[in-house]
Amino acid sequence: MLPSEMEVGGERTSLSKLSKQYGPVFKIQLGLQKIVVLAGYETIKEALVNNADVFAERAHVPLFEEFSRGFGIVFSHGENWRVMRRFMLTTLRDYGMGKRSMESRIAEECSFLVKKFESYKGKPFEFRGIMTAAVGNIIVSILLGKRYDYEDSRFIKLLSLATENIRLSGSLPMQLYNMFPMLGYFFATRKKVQNNRKELYAFINENFIQCFNNLDENDTRNFIDSYLVQQQQERKTQNNGYFHHKNLEESVMNIFVAGVDTVSSTLFWAFTLMMKYPLIQKKVQEEITNVVGYAQPRTEHRTKMPYTDAVVHEVQRYADVVPLNLPHATTVDVNFKGYFIPKGTHVVPLLTSVLHDESQWERPHEFYPEHFLNTEGKFVKRDVFMPFSAGRRVCPGETLAKTEIFMFFTSLLQKFILQPAPGLSKEDLDMTRAVGLTTPPNTYTLCALPCS
Fold first, then answer.
1. What is the CA radius of gyration of the chain?
2. pLDDT tens sequence across 169-224
3. Fewest Cβ atoms nearer than 10 Å: which of 53, 69, 187, 288?
């Protein structure tokens, strides 16, 4: 048996406090569900990296099971997950992930974003929607091979639905639904999430039809084209394969929602922190000027910009945008750290406990870029840095996300000094974390003043 069989809330702070009391492996009871929580770098590395196959399954969570139906990539299981993940990784590489062609797409979007920031002429504006749209366009370019204007009402609505569902999925009513699914009928929030998903599916299906009607097997233009070609090839060899419409629908949903929200939330933190720490912002801008000059920042500049690289990594560590990770499950019975964990057990590898592990970080609860610099000012890679999780379920879009974060961050700081709105000081900035599956800050208004 595992210690600690008490009912607790699912917040990152509650579980972190429990880990200090009960150790790095403990069990909690949430409604009808027994959950094993793993905390701390050494324990989570042992589980997700050293025993990757054992902890590779996705837990069956009522809300996610109801909506994903076991299809797609993020919340699917077994062989369906393996096939869809393999296809996604291959296709993302085909469309430029980690290549200069993808960098060029991001660079183009950076230029649109800079022009949008310039249009406010130093006056305060709410940058959340604009930033989300810029990130959304990178994902849309992969899925559909196009981009939208930041004022496009349909695109704004689409992004709003996706963002709202991320927030609602981590809300108290949905936590209660996951604990007591038989009471789901009484939760209005669940109905709202359902309706939002229906609108998102409608958009996906409309564009799916457009791609299907214009499909050329010899000239695939985007992710959906590649899926449809694979679907046709599969039908020639087997009757009941994996490349059916439900997997397409859910995979596109996964890529869009997860790809947009995590990157945009990280960038919200990046710019909020630069306003909070203007001396750090100034040092980043000086390095950009010295290394890049007036050229478009590219990932090739990263190795020549150790301080900026350290700041970007520290933003991701401090931001901790997916603190609870996504729930795992064991694929077999396992004896782990002296405890017997049965096959199919719901496991939460607490990412926040890694990114703020007091045994690993000098100042775990402060924003301190020197975590990633040695005494000579050179960038230091840290194994304990795992904002994208680790093991078999590590985020498949990690390479793309890193490129986006670096290029958007440096492109804007190359052009603008970011400051709080008039009347606010850096001390007034709201650093409170929003509630949801991801945790962006609550500060979204800034002034972007042209660099001299």
1. 22
2. 888 888 888 888 887 777 888 889 889 999 988 888 887 777 777 777 777 888 88
3. 53
Rounded to whole angstroms, how far apart are CA atoms 368 and 321? Answer: 17
Distance of alpha carbon 297 from alpha carbon 185, whole angstroms: 51
* DSSP, res 391: G
Cα 175-254-256 angle, rounded to 5 deg: 115
Inter-residue long-range contacts of 127-134, CB under 8 Å, 24+ positions, other chains counted: 127/271, 127/444, 127/445, 127/446, 127/448, 128/264, 128/268, 128/444, 129/156, 129/159, 131/264, 131/267, 131/268, 131/271, 131/408, 132/159, 132/163, 132/260, 132/264, 133/159, 134/109, 134/110, 134/408
- For residue 347, the SS3 value is strand
Q: Residue 256 and residue 199: Cα distance in Å, rounded?
A: 14
Strands 25-30 and 334-336: unpaired
- CA–CA separation, 316 and 320 (whole Å): 6
Residue type, 338: G
DSSP 12: H
User: pLDDT at position 1, please?
Assistant: 43
pTM here is 0.92
Residue 322 reports pLDDT greater than 80? yes
254, 74 Cβ separation under 8 angstroms: yes
